[in-house]
Design brief:
Mean pLDDT: 97
CATH class: Alpha Beta
Oligomer: single chain
Radius of gyration: 16 Å
Largest sheet: 6 strands, mixed
Bound molecules: magnesium ion
Length: 203
Amino acid sequence: MKIICVGRNYREHAQEMQSDIPEAPIFFIKPDSCLLRNNQPFFYPKFTSELHYELEVVLRVNRLGRSIGQKFAHRYYDAVTLGIDFTARDLQRMCKQKGLPWEMAKAFDHSAPIGLFIPKEELGDLGSLDFRLEINGKLVQQGNTHDMIFSYDELIAYVSRFVTFRTGDLLFTGTPVGVGPVKIGDRLQAYLGDRLMLDFFVR
Ligand code: MG
């Protein structure tokens, strides 16, 4: 399986990164070696000194599809969770400056912790989900999916023009404003509405 991640899908996050608001979705891919499950600890990598969290709503793809029409896109995902798109911000900045690919900053081992999936029927309106991240009990990031620039279905339709979705693939739908650093010893807890979805330590 693969993890497709959308960049700059929230206006205020694009602004905090001093990036333009995209006219079409921006995406990149993390390999399956990025996954971290079951609230296992995340080990701070030696190659960065500026590791940032990006809390994101994650969709689980449940069927094969390519060039999916937007009006059919909702049939291609069946469950939702929260995930963190860990980013080595110092490396990403260097890659951007040199025009290099982002993989070393985004696609490293265990850079995608995810929670358990909730069937989408249980969540009601997926277009207005509140989600938030606390570090050591303090609120650091908060978003609502109605602020996404591109909807889930626009993202699926667009990405599938280029990349085939397979059952089990994941779509990280972008992070809201408020990204920031983590350090060794931090406890990260992420909530979807009032459900605790992630609860793990940085070691
Ligand atoms: Mg992200």
